[in-house]
Amino acid sequence: MHKYIVTHVQFDFTDDNFECPPNIMQEIYNDTVDHIWTAENDDDLIEEITSTAGFCIQSINYRQLPEVIQ
Length: 70
Hints:
Elements: E1 2-11, E2 14-15, E3 18-19, H1 22-33, E4 36-39, H2 42-53, E5 57-64
Antiparallel strand pairs: 1-4, 1-5, 2-3
């Protein structure tokens, strides 16, 4: 498993039947960017974030954290 830090993410908050309030959008963004994510690979990272946030990702910037040798 690898650790990732998200530096920027843009979610698709649009839906024909739902309008996400701006304060909730900001909270989801902050929770995503301020979190260290653990995933097997880049695709798994996207799945983890989408599943947790409940919204699809339009664009994302992230970096993999270095492995720590113990």
